[in-house]
Specification:
mainly alpha, elongated
């Protein structure tokens, strides 16, 4: 509920929604859906998989330096 309230102004700006209550409802629905997917993802992963995925994600974000 709080996530919907806090993100509704941004959603109103991005989607040209003029009613704050509608924007709050849509934003809360999106946040709940994303959090449920995250909980399912985390529940199906063991700690070793998490560390491996975290390491590979960080290395992709960091990128590799080219020799100059």
């Amino acid at each position: 509920m709080m996530a919907g309230y806090l993100t509704s102004p941004e959603l109103m700006r991005m989607a040209a929604i003029h009613d704050r209550s509608v924007a709050s409802l849509i934003a809360a629905t999106l946040v709940v859906t994303i959090l449920n997917k995250g909980i399912d993802w985390a529940g199906n992963m063991n700690f070793a998989d998490f560390i491996i995925n975290l390491g590979s994600m960080l290395s992709r974000m960091k990128g590799t330096k080219k020799d100059e």
